[in-house]
């Protein structure tokens, strides 16, 4: 059986073929669960992966099923390893266009942000955390909508003092958005119980440093990497540490390679997917060593 190629069903679509060793990697990462339909040569019909003898052996068994309705607080990220992401070019294109148009027209902002967040999160694969999802609701973003409207109103006044004040409010807004996003992640319909514990002042300091680093031409890449590492260290509610492994040099050259073809407009979806795949793969769940402080 180990020499066969396998197919599996995901969101009603056929994926594969994959060699069995790669299929087992999908099982460890949670992309394929015991209930996922699989098929290989010699099988009459599609069958649940958990019903295939030996497929979930050798430590590949999924984690214990929680009590119905019970939260998964403190258990997120039980399996170690890198995250991954996969999405279609055309799906990314039309969803991004809807997001852009919604932001331009202002009123749909909460709905298009939630729509896009639900889609992009569903594309991410976390080790032993199947069916990652985003549960935030548009009505929870009404405060964001109110601030956007305030920005527009102030822009009409052309007041430099008010614009400066709103620039400060903008940092608070982004910080709250991060906390809201992390708190609304779930797996298999159960809340993960995650929270972002980074302080506002820490976020403000890193954001200002990122803005100032642009004048160094290339130093911004190292600052961005350090900021992402700081944010990952402050994701709490998981038994594993969330680590960002990329270096500044890796971030820099990939960002440049991504940006140059994007000047031609058409390659944007392909370059975005290439860069995003790499970026997400640099986020790894590892055995906890120290507890990040707020």
Task: Outline the structure in words.
With 294 residues, this protein is α+β, with helices and mostly antiparallel strands. It is 46% helix and 16% strand. The chain is built from nine helices and 14 strands. It has a four-stranded antiparallel beta sheet. A three-stranded antiparallel beta sheet has the order 5-14-13. The longest helix is centred in the middle third of the chain and has 24 residues, at 160-183. It is globular. The N and C termini lie far apart (49 Å).
Class by helix and strand content? Answer: alpha+beta
- Strand order of the main beta sheet, please? 2-1-3-4
How much of the residues is beta strand, in percent?
15-25%
Per DSSP, the total helix count is: 9
**End-to-end CA span:** 49 Å
* Subunit organisation of the chains: single chain
The overall strand count is: 14
Largest sheet: 4 strands, antiparallel
Report helical residue fraction.
40-55%
Q: Outline, from the CA principal axes?
A: globular
* Mean pLDDT across every amino acid position: 83
C-alpha-based Rg, rounded? 21 Å
**Secondary-structure element series:** EEHEEEEHHEEHHEEEHHEEHHE
Pick out its properties.
294 residues, alpha+beta, 3-stranded antiparallel β-sheet, 9 helices, 16% strand, globular
What is the topological layout?
Elements (H helix, E strand, L loop, with lengths): L4 E6 L2 E7 H10 L7 E4 L6 E2 L32 E2 L1 E2 L3 H16 L4 H14 L1 E2 L6 E3 L7 H16 L2 H24 L1 E3 L2 E2 L3 E2 L3 H13 L7 H14 L1 E2 L3 E5 L3 H15 L5 H14 L1 E5 L7
Antiparallel strand pairs: 1-2, 1-3, 3-4, 5-14, 6-7, 8-9, 9-10, 11-12, 13-14
Helix pairs in contact: 2-3, 4-5, 6-7, 7-8, 8-9
């Amino acid at each position: 059986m180990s020499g066969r190629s396998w197919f599996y069903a995901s969101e009603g679509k056929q994926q594969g073929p994959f060699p069995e060793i790669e299929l087992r990697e999908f099982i460890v990462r949670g992309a394929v669960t015991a209930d996922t339909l699989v098929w290989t040569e010699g099988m009459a019909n599609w069958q649940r992966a958990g019903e295939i003898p030996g497929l979930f052996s050798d430590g590949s068994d999924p984690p214990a099923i929680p009590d119905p309705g019970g939260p998964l607080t403190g258990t997120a990220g039980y399996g170690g390893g890198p995250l991954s992401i996969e999405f279609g070019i055309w799906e990314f294109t039309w969803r991004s266009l809807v997001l852009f148009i919604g932001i331009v027209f202002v009123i749909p902002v909460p709905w298009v942000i939630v729509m896009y967040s639900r889609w992009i999160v569903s594309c991410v694969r976390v080790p032993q955390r199947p069916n990652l999802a985003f549960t935030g609701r548009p009505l929870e973003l009404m405060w964001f909508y109110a601030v956007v409207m305030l920005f527009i109103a102030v822009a009409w006044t052309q007041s430099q003092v008010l614009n400066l004040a709103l620039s400060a409010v903008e940092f608070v807004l982004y910080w709250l958005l991060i906390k809201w996003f992390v708190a609304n992640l779930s797996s298999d319909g159960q809340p993960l119980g995650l929270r972002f514990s980074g302080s506002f002042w820490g976020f403000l300091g890193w954001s200002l440093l990122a803005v100032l680093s642009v004048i160094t031409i290339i130093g911004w890449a190292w600052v961005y990497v350090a900021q992402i590492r700081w944010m990952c260290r402050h994701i709490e509610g998981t038994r594993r540490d969330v680590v960002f492994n990329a270096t500044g040099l890796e971030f820099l050259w990939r960002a440049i390679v991504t940006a140059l073809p994007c000047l031609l407009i058409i390659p944007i979806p392909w370059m975005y997917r290439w860069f995003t795949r790499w970026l997400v793969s640099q986020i790894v769940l590892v055995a906890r060593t120290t507890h990040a402080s707020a």
